[in-house]
Amino acid sequence: FAPWENPDAKPFIEFRNVTKRFGDFTAVDNLSLKIYEREFFALLGGSGCGKTTMMRMLAGFEEPNEGEIFLDGQNLRGVPPYRRPANMMFQSYALFPHMTVEGNVAFGLKQDRLPKGEIEARVQEMLKLVKLEAFAKRKPHQLSGGQRQRVALARSLAKKPKVLLLDEPLGALDRKLREETQFELTDLQAELGMTFLIVTHDQEEAMTVADRIAVMDKGRIIQVATPAEIYEVPNSRFVADFIGSINMIEAKVATRNGEATHLRASGFDREIVVDQQTEASVGDTVWFAIRPEKVRLSFDAPADGCNAVQGEIWDIGYLGDVSIFHAKATEDVVLKSTVANVTRTVERPISWDDRVWLSWDRDAGVILTR
Ligand code: ATP
């Protein structure tokens, strides 16, 4: 089973109560985190949340004010960047424009004064890895954005670091190329059996590449979990809202019996029943969060046993693969429902102003208390 589920597993990278301040601004706030060997780990958060600072501290470009960082059992305090077994690939790629692809990839190896034959062999190996053998003699300006990105990747991997740090590595690529490259990155990581740490503000990217994600806000980690857990069982409104699209209904706990919790939401005729226990007490205000694809739409009343509310179609968005329906359920609540377009229909069967039922299963959403 996964190393993070094993309490005895030794972390490969560990941040222990790390704080980083710039003047009187706290960029990273008493943060602890364990990352395991061969993990593809993502730091995800909005601009300014401290994710790049985390990575720069690991690489040695910043020192923490408080706390310790360990890599493969070594305390990194005072270890200069070039002595750390971590290599960082920058967003700008920082390729040398006057050097060929080969020259760029060989640069770090030459600095380390490796024997010539070994450098040549390593460069060939790296170019093969990123499928750029045919471009060895070109200069960066003769390459596409995606190819430049792969040169930067080859250069970062050439010294065979124990950890590769990727700072928004795909930010400069267009959407299609970015999606392809995401899968190439995960293949590459699996092939090399290395630990990858990526910093991104793009939740889809984090979900696609990472084994686990840390969602950050204001210098703190809000949740660390697998992509599926982050999406299905967010631990807070912040995470629920940051990842994907979600419906959020404010409600009060009405009853709690064994496995299920009953919620009462203003304007709803029926209680919302959720197959989930909560630490909240009867009468407490909580939020019921449910993904739009888990909300069904129908003209007929749904079967007993599931949650349901009536609503009026307010807005429809056609996105090709799915359509998004917005339905006004109460004075304050507009629920989103996404419906997969599995057959070829130009006309939506449900249209503006239709009165519909919105329904969902008892195990389809989560109760959030913060
Ligand atoms: P982005 O995605 O925009 O790069 P980020 O989450 O990576 O955001 P960081 O670069 O880690 O954010 O920065 C966190 C905060 O610390 C920001 O508010 C930033 O302005 C501040 N900061 C970072 N480096 C410095 C510095 N050298 N001096 C002063 N403030 C800094």
From TrEMBL:
It is an enzyme of class 7 (translocase). It catalyses: ATP + H2O + polyamine-[polyamine-binding protein]Side 1 = ADP + phosphate + polyamineSide 2 + [polyamine-binding protein]Side 1. Residues 13-243 form the ABC transporter domain. One of its GO terms (cellular component) is ATP-binding cassette (ABC) transporter complex. Keywords: ATP-binding, Cell inner membrane, Cell membrane, Membrane, Nucleotide-binding, Translocase, Transport. The complex is composed of two ATP-binding proteins (PotA), two transmembrane proteins (PotB and PotC) and a solute-binding protein (PotD). This is Spermidine/putrescine import ATP-binding protein PotA.
